[in-house]
Design a protein that fits this description.
The protein is mostly beta strands. Helix content is about 15%, strand content about 40%. The chain has 3 helices and 17 strands.
């Protein structure tokens, strides 16, 4: 995933898919899965990556965390990112292989300006891919461009940490985002590997997650 103005470049995770087993079917990316539409899940994970107190993007080797019974994966702020994860059994997972975000006032002071900048930055992201346990997931229909929406911004969030022009008194930010968004149905106990990748201005970015699903921790 890419932040405009070169503040941060990253790869992220967000799609809804079934366990890659015999007879399993992938959920269409433009459907409503786990109670929300694709674009809503994108907004949720973007808000977590950029506005939460966790500030996952600035934690080297940080895999992710469970939020409202869904495991949110981190994204790569460097070209090659690798993390070990422990996920409770029975937990669905959210991820995205690529995307970008704009926020006021840094990237524009009107909705129109944010959306115009978003279109320019989104065009720089190509070749998204997601592989789960060696199974290449179908990303058709998983890309969405949002309108302008509001996310909470914690004092220790990425936005406030990396952007000295963001007004320190604000606790919310007006943002626009575009991303491929995927959720993964709960995986069986054991070892799994999730690989997310894309290219930003032709440069490859890859995030690899080594997942341990622990039995009896649903």
């Amino acid at each position: 995933m890419r932040k405009s103005s070169a503040l941060v470049v990253l790869v992220a995770i967000a799609l809804f898919v079934a366990v890659p087993a015999a007879g399993a079917k992938e959920v269409p990316g433009n459907s409503s899965a786990f109670g929300a539409a694709n674009v809503v899940w994108q907004q949720r994970i973007i808000g977590w990556l950029f506005g939460s107190a966790t500030n996952p993007l600035l934690q080297p080797g940080f895999c992710g965390e469970v939020i409202n019974h869904v495991f949110y994966f981190n994204a790569a702020a460097v070209p090659v990112f690798d993390a070990n994860c422990v996920v409770p059994s029975g937990t669905p997972m959210a991820a995205t292989p690529g995307g970008t975000i704009e926020w006021e006032p840094t990237n524009g002071i009107t909705d129109q300006a944010l959306l115009a900048q978003l279109a320019l930055d989104a065009a720089a992201i190509t070749n998204p891919a997601v592989t789960l346990d060696g199974h290449v997931l179908n990303l058709a229909g998983t890309f969405a461009t949002t309108g302008v929406y509001t996310i909470p911004v914690a004092p220790t969030s990425l936005i406030k940490t990396v952007d000295p022009t963001f007004p320190p008194e604000l606790t919310q930010a007006r943002v626009a985002s575009a991303a491929w968004t995927v959720l993964i149905a709960p995986l069986p106990p054991g070892q799994h590997e999730l690989v997310l990748s894309d290219e930003i201005l032709g440069d490859p970015f890859t995030a690899t997650f080594h997942i341990t699903v622990e039995a009896g921790h649903a």
